[in-house]
Write a structure and sequence with these properties.
Blueprint (H helix, E strand, L loop, with lengths): L1 H26 L4 E17 L2 E16 L17 H30 L1 E2 L3 E4 L4 H4 L7 E5 L2 E2 L3 H10 L5 E8 L2 E8 L1 E2 L5 E2 L2 E4 L2 E2 L3 H27 L11 H16 L3 H23 L7 H14 L5 H30 L1
């Protein structure tokens, strides 16, 4: 059952991504040859109008194949014959739809259980927060230059500032704003901390707050993904901390099994939360300026817009092909690492 749940989540996210490309392509009069879910041999396919809708064997990935996308065509409805701005919109629409999906799912969760307000539950004895007079019930609004909207942003700040540092903390108490300067202190576990304990819990939201805090939720996951990538590049995150499809399926399965003991309502909420993380992550990853990804294609389109002239299609195709091989090799490496971690 947990594998089925994982496949449903992946499929939902991929379909929404490809739907972004598909809908904007259609809006710009581009001929879409095939809209598919999965990779590899076709299991089932049906043609409606000019587009074939198909389900393929491997349940990871998908495609929105457009006329003239990777080859030249004289047809005025070919992708390559549309304006550079239309093509940029089509390419960007996939990741953008991932962010829209994250927003919709966030609205469902926050509508059900509220948002995690940045209100602290307490302070640790002998640590900077206590010494500065902070106490349970204080609402943190800024950490340094970062505006805080939800409690997990405080947690992420702590994770990304693991060495000793000084930060200005702005918080509200009884409607009054206060700012204190705290220098992290090393705890018994070796981590440097401000001494802030836990969240004050979730706060029920009205209709406007559901929308507002859903935007903050999506922003949090986008920023978290970017910060995680920076930590990986700088060596603060190792390959063992990176998961591919196998690792993600395993995580979904473990969360599913643990949530079942609390009832199906919590299974639903936890699966939705994982879906938000994954769709926001996919949106960010696809916008990276790496050949073969949407971000890589956007780089060539931006160059074209600046030059006023297309990049040679064969050269661009060659660059994307090299990028694809590198990505496939990386996926195999990550998958092998995921399998190793299972045993």
């Amino acid at each position: 059952m947990k594998i089925v749940v994982a496949i449903i989540i992946f499929s939902l996210i991929i379909i929404f991504h490809e739907l972004g490309h598909f809908s904007v392509a259609k809006a710009n009069g581009i001929c879409v040859l095939e809209f598919s879910l999965g990779l590899g041999p076709t299991i089932f396919g049906v043609t409606k109008g000019e587009t074939k809708y198909s389900l393929k064997l491997l349940p990871f990935g998908g495609a929105c194949m457009m006329l003239g996308e990777d080859e030249s065509s004289e047809d005025e409805r070919a992708f390559g014959n549309k304006s550079v701005w239309a093509r940029m919109a089509v390419v960007f629409a996939g990741p953008f739809f991932n962010f829209i999906l994250a927003l919709v799912l966030s609205m469902v969760i926050i509508g059900c259980v509220g948002y995690d307000a940045p209100v602290i539950a307490g302070v640790s004895e002998g640590f900077p927060a206590e010494e500065a007079g902070m106490q349970a019930g204080d609402k943190i609004t800024k950490l340094g230059n970062e505006t805080i909207h939800i409690y997990r942003e405080i947690t992420m700040y702590s994770l990304t500032h693991s060495e000793q540092s000084t930060v200005d903390v702005t918080y509200e108490r009884d409607g009054q704003k206060h700012t204190v300067t705290l220098t992290t202190k090393q705890g018994e576990d070796g981590r440097y901390m401000l001494g802030i304990i836990g969240s004050g819990g979730r706060v029920r939201a009205n209709a406007w707050e559901v929308v507002k805090y859903s935007v903050f939720e999506v922003k949090y996951w986008i920023v978290t993904t970017i910060k995680s990538l920076k930590m990986m590049v700088t060596g603060r995150v190792s390959m063992n901390d990176v998961s591919g499809p196998v690792g993600i399926v395993n995580t979904i399965g473990d969360t599913y099994e643990q949530s079942k003991t609390d009832g199906w309502y919590y299974v639903f909420l936890n699966m939705m939360n994982i879906s938000i993380l994954l769709t926001a992550n996919l949106g960010v990853m696809n916008l990276l300026p790496i050949p073969a990804l949407d971000g890589g294609r956007l780089v060539f389109l931006i160059i074209e817009a600046i030059r006023g002239k297309k990049v040679d299609q064969e050269k661009e195709g060659f660059v994307h092909m090299i990028g694809l091989f590198i990505l496939l090799a990386l996926m195999v490496l990550i998958m092998a690492n995921d399998i190793r971690k299972l045993f």
